[in-house]
Amino acid sequence: MIGYVTLGTNDLARAAAFYDALAKELGTGRMMEFPTGIAWGTPGGGAGIGLIKPFDGNPASVGNGVMVALEAKDKEQVHRLYDIALSLGGTCEGPPGPRGDNFYAAYFRDPDGNKLNAFLMTGPL
């Protein structure tokens, strides 16, 4: 089971505003903060997400093929998360809509270029 996912950032303040807004929409908040990073989630809940300036001091970079999926409660929340992301400097990687028979998702990148999606399973796998 995944406990949390960490993504790199080169601008913690900008990234914090982006993820604070997504976390608020998902009904959670910050659970840990330190000078070089922040983590969002609910202790004892599902997997959290963290942002950190790389420990080695080199610039953060995006992993090709890496994506973090944010589970939404309904299609409307998929749309809201997508809209929040784009309004805070995120970029579109695929607008909200069905992906196959039982999956509804929107894809976007955060201001550092990390790929995320908001999704909803709409039926059995």
Would you summarize the structure shown here?
This is Glyoxalase. This protein has 125 residues and is an alpha/beta fold. The chain has helices spanning 12-25, 75-87, and strands at 4-8, 29-34, 37-41, 48-52, 67-71, 91-98, 103-109, 115-121.
What does this structure look like?
- The protein has 125 residues and is α/β, with parallel strands linked by helices.
- It is 22% helix and 38% strand.
- It contains two helices and eight strands; from the N terminus they run E-H-E-E-E-E-H-E-E-E.
- Helix 1 (12-25) packs antiparallel against helix 2.
- The longest helix has 14 residues, at 12-25.
- The chain is globular.
- The two termini are 19 Å apart.
- The mean pLDDT is 94.
Mean pLDDT: 94
Helical content (DSSP H or I, runs of 4+): 10-25%
With strands numbered from the N-terminus, the spatial order across the biggest sheet is 1-4-3-2
Largest sheet features? 4 strands, mixed
Helix/strand class: alpha/beta
Number of helices, counting only DSSP H or I runs of 4 residues or more: 2
Quaternary organization: single chain
Rg value: 14 Å
**In CATH's first tier, which class applies?**
Alpha Beta
**How many β strands by DSSP?**
8
SSE succession: EHEEEEHEEE
Strand content: 35-45%
Taking pLDDT < 50 over at least 5 consecutive residues as the criterion, the unreliable ranges are none
Quickly give the CATH architecture: Roll
Coarse morphology: globular
Distance between the termini: 19 Å
**CATH superfamily descriptor:** 2,3-Dihydroxybiphenyl 1,2-Dioxygenase, domain 1
What is the CATH T-level topology? 2,3-Dihydroxybiphenyl 1,2-Dioxygenase, domain 1
How many domain units?
1
